[in-house]
Amino acid sequence: MNSVLIDPRRMVGRVALKSAAHVGGISLFVFELARGLGEWREWYHPALRQARDIGYGSMFIVFITASFAGAVTILQAGYQIAAGVPTYFASGVVVSTIILELGPVLTGLILAGRVGAGYAAELGTMRVTEQIDALESLGRSSVSHVLLPRVLAATLMVPILCIFSNCIAIFAGWVASKGAMDMSNADFVYGARYFFKPFFMWYSLTKSFFFGLTIAIVPCYVGFNTSHGAEGVGRATMTAVMTSSVLILFLNALLARILLPQ
Amino acid sequence: MITLRNVHKAFGDNVVLDGVNLDVQRGETVALLGPSGVGKSVLLKHINGLITPDKGEVKVDGMSVPHLHRKELAALRQRVGYVFQYGALFDSMTVYDNILLGITDEMCVNDIGYCGARMIECLELVNLAPDIASKYPAELSGGMKKRVGIARAIAGKPTYLLYDEPTSGLDPVNAEIIDSLVGKLQRELGVTSVAVTHDVRGAFNVADRIALLSDGKIRALGTPAELAASDNEAVRGFLERDLEDIVRH
After folding, report:
1. What are the tens digits of pLDDT across the range A30-52?
2. Which residues of chain B neighbour A137 with C-beta distances below 8 Å?
3. B1-79+197-249 adopts what CATH topology?
């Protein structure tokens, strides 16, 4: 009778053990990555190639996402501003919201899907077709040849793409304000500068740096440890995207709590 | 010399190797036969440290493989070539770049002239035309991928070669060429080889000794003549279909 029912204690125990194993596994993984940094001759050129692929390859999707984010934000801000409130408040809301929140988070989530899925699928396929074993059997380090280039490229490019995203979103907000609101250029610029603080940029870049690490490490770890053929690769890709997306949202809340003055 | 002593390996509840003992002398070719899924590839991967045993010893030239440091293991692997069952070529690299990765000597790998000449030499040894060097693995047939994998494994002039089904998927002509290559590498360069294979006839032609892995242990080990004449039930059961042809030839 008990075997038919789900035992919640066993389920909690199983989940806890599995989670602990993954935390340990990722810790060892990060340690190996740090150890491989010394072999810079192996990872330097592949890292630059990966960074170029991420940068150029992601610009279009980041552009689209940021444009709509900026346009919608100022339209909603304009809708919500009560009568009597200066219109330049809307541009202030756009700049603050984009730089503090939407820029890094939307960019992070989009890149978790694009870059993270790609990494998990590539590495998973390499694992199940024994390419990783082949590299190691040739006396080469899979960390410096395959993993570090991807991790470093993503960690470098996500903040850069975040800056790009912020600029595009603010520009799109300005374009949308011309069409939908009675806001002069001077008002837009005044509002943007009035509410802006240099701290916003540091906050945005710090968040995007941690998001970049998440997008790099989680999919690489999951892909590198794939098994069970094509089904395993599919599962790894899905797990990588979901896990890194959830972690981005969690880190977003955590960093807001830690970094924003209360 | 390769020494395996009391090697145990399990994956979860699945016990694959249950006390394997095997010695491979310098310059010898040993074929490893056994039913599908019995653990032949798992055993092979213990030799170059791709898998570590749960218990037991794995030694190559007196060095305990599971206890080697990272750099020592990398140095050992540069002397031990491994031919994977499906080639395991790197998809994002051309045939030339794949073979280049097999040249592990740092002095030679920077010499473009040497690399080009060695690549052509290795491709010719496996009966492939040099003009495939610019192709990507996706443009090659399965048999061609397998042969490029062999070319990559021998590019670094290894002391030991581990073959995982070197002739599976090849037509009889190319299978014969690979069998001859194994023999040639042994005779001319003194390469020590361990070959996992289902090609019983090829094993009997090429190997100095044949080992039969079954139920986690080496059940029989001897020269081809000894195995052909063996009364061992496991040997006769496995070789039954091919034994008559072998005895007749």
Report:
1. 999 999 999 898 899 999 999 99
2. 48, 50, 77, 80-82
3. Rossmann fold (3.40.50)
